[in-house]
Each structure stands twice: as structure tokens, then as C-alpha cells.
Amino acid sequence: MPSTLLPKRVCACDSAVIEVAHPCRDHVRVKVAVPGFPASVPGQFVELRCGQAGTNAPRERCWTDHGPTEAFETSWLTREPYLRRPFSIADRTGDEQGAQVEIISRHIGPGTAFLDVLKVGDTLNLTGPLGHGFDLPSPNRSAILVGGGVGIPPLLYMSRVLAAEKHRGAHLVLGAMSRDLFPVTCSESPAEDGRPRRCLQLPGGAPYAATVTTDDGTIGLRGRVTDGWQRLADREQLSDPIVYACGPSAMLRGVAVLTRSLGWDCQLCIERNMGCGMGTCLSCVTRVRDESRPAGWRWALACSEGPVFDRDLLVEEWDHAAR
Ligand SMILES: Cc1cc2nc3c(=O)[nH]c(=O)nc-3n(C[C@H](O)[C@H](O)[C@H](O)COP(=O)(O)OP(=O)(O)OC[C@H]3O[C@@H](n4cnc5c(N)ncnc54)[C@H](O)[C@@H]3O)c2cc1C
Ligand code: FES
């Protein structure tokens, strides 16, 4: 197994919450100011301590099934998450001395409930940037950024980075179950027929057209992200396209199948349970192809070799796409 301990340079520190917004139901966007946050790339992530900063001890807090109660700050009735929680970097500005880092979290359990009630001025302890992110496309390639649900945030950061590089040919295809679970602000209505339109407020004012899909059709095209993207492929002149995708496993398998049938390159950002985020706990293993092994594959750690992998390396997605 390759060495997977801490990558290059990582910051582990308290950060100050400087902006909080609730872009849609169950989601919170949190921006923090981080002193000494090393250079990062889209697809990398941070591990957040979803509890009182500055202490390593597991603590007891007042949680209900729906999140913290009003007595949250002072009560000690049920357990606070002990392990950190991984979140993709949704945006990053500033330099290494003073960076602003943004995450978008969907509330699904106790850790994300903690993020849901953060206020400006609170402290959030983070470790990052972690993992291996997306490889940026060469300037003449069409980049298609495909995001579903909580897989949307790294593609937003990617749009900022591509715009800063003055990359011309980029398109977004973003999907959610319904409008009230779509965590991006629209500057105008996305097209119902999937036509790419500059309808989203992207980080850094990135000037890219987007196709938005929802399962129930409450915004944009009714259907899945793969439906939206097929419309894009039909309408746009794409030059040597490469797809960058992040989202639920079923969506990634769909993207793997489609890109393979079209002969397009593709990088997938996968999600696994991650206990440490830095190659020590082995909770995030995934199978990758390796012809030098008798079985033709080996275990890889998604937190440090990934979470971004070339589509053809991932055994589950590749097997599916090859069928
Ligand atoms: C690299 C990476 C990047 C991520 N980026 C984001 C992000 O940008 N925004 C965001 O909202 N979430 C993101 N996630 C998922 C996020 O880490 C989990 O939602 C979070 O850890 C849940 O913590 P919790 O304590 O609220 O819930 P938990 O109590 O840990 O989980 C509640 C329920 O959700 C299930 N669950 C937890 N994590 C996952 C998962 N990764 N996939 C499927 N089911 C899960 C659990 O099994 C349990 O049933 C990312 C995960 C990874 C690995
Ligand atoms: S999350 Fe601990 S080894 Fe990957």
C-alpha cells in the first residue's frame, strides 16, 4: 500500500466564522477565515470538528432527533460527534496567510446539525486541505462540471478556479431532488428544456452557462443530471471534453457509463465514510484497478489517494460502465 500519511502541507487550527447563510432547506453555507491555510485545489476537502473547538475530549450535548435544542450551549445530555466530519471546499479566496474557506453542508445528523446553528463570530476547528483534488483541464478542452446534491460544492469551487485561469469552455450541469434542496442562488430561472444558460451566481462571478435538473421538475429540466448533460452534449460544440463529477454513487455510475460510451475522459470525486481524513483509520477504502496485482485490483484510501479518481481506476464504477 502506498504511503498515505498526511499529504504535503495541512493546517489544523481554529477558524472564525465570518458568514452564514441558509441557501435552501436543510443546507447551510458557512464561510470561515483561516490563518495559514495552504494552497488548495477543487475536490479537496476539510475535516471539521462538529463540536466545541479547542478541546479533544468527547463531550455530551443536548441533541434531539432534529438537532440541538435551545439548551444546546449549556446542556450535556447526549453525545456530541467525536470524529471530525469531511466537507468539500465549496470556495476559497485569499492567500496562505489569510484565506477564506467556504463549505456547504446538508443537515442529516448530529455533526451537520452542529454546523446548522453556527453564527458569525463562532469558532470552527478545521483540518485541511486534505486529499487529492481534480486535475485542471488544458485551456483548449471543454470542461463539464457535473454535480448532484451534496456533490455540488466542489464544482462551485472548480468554476471559480477555471474562471480565474480564464478557461473559456466550461459548462455546469447541476442536479437536486427539488428546488428547495438546490443550494445555489439563481440569477434567473434555469431553462426547463435543459438549454445551458448563465442563470447561476457562481463564486467569483464565473461566467459559465449551467443546466439545472430536478427530479420533480420544480426548477430547470425535470430529470437527472445525466439527462441534462445529454441535452448539453446535443446542443454545444464541445472540444475534447472532460467531465468532472461529484455526487451520489448511483449518479457517479451513470456518469461513468455515459462518459465511457462517448469516449470522454472523466474524473470522479467519490464519498466514503471518513473517520480521520488523512490515511490512518482505514475507514474509507475503495477498490482501484491495478494490473500489477494478481487480482487486478488493490485497496486505496479515498481520503488520501482520492477523493478524486480517474473513472477507469475505480473498480465499482468501471465494472458498471464496462457492462
Ligand atoms: C470527501 C467528502 C466530502 C463531503 N462533502 C460534503 C459537502 O460538501 N456537503 C455535505 O453536506 N456533505 C458532504 N459530505 C458528507 C458529510 O461528510 C456527511 O453528511 C457528514 O459527515 C454527516 O455527519 P452527521 O454527523 O451529520 O451525520 P451522521 O450521523 O454521520 O450520518 C447520518 C446518516 O447519514 C449517513 N451518512 C453519513 N455520511 C455519509 C456519506 N458520506 N454518504 C452517505 N451516507 C452518509 C450515515 O450512515 C447515517 O445514516 C462529504 C463526505 C465526504 C467523504
Ligand atoms: S478516512 Fe481515515 S484512512 Fe481514510
- Please state the average pLDDT score: 88
Identify the CATH architecture of the largest domain: 3-Layer(aba) Sandwich
Largest beta-sheet details: 7 strands, antiparallel
Number of spatially distinct domains: 2
Kindly, what is the distance between the CA atoms of the first and last residues, rounded to a whole number of angstroms? Answer: 29 Å
Oligomer: single chain
Can you describe this structure?
The structure is a single chain. The protein has 2 domains: 11-130, Elongation Factor Tu (Ef-tu), domain 3, CATH 2.40.30; 143-271 and 307-322, Rossmann fold, CATH 3.40.50. It contains 5 helices and 20 strands. The protein starts with 10 loop residues before the first strand and ends with a helix. It has helices at residues 110-116, 153-164, 225-235, 249-262, 315-322, and strands spanning 11-21, 27-35, 45-49, 60-61, 63-64, 67-68, 78-79, 85-88, 91-94, 98-106, 123-130, 143-148, 170-176, 209-214, 221-222, 242-246, 265-269, 285-289, 297-301, 308-310. Helix content is 16%, strand content 32%. It is of the alpha/beta class and 323 residues long. Bound molecules: flavin-adenine dinucleotide and FE2/S2 (inorganic) cluster. FE2/S2 (inorganic) cluster (FES) binds at residues 274-277, 279-284, 301, 303.
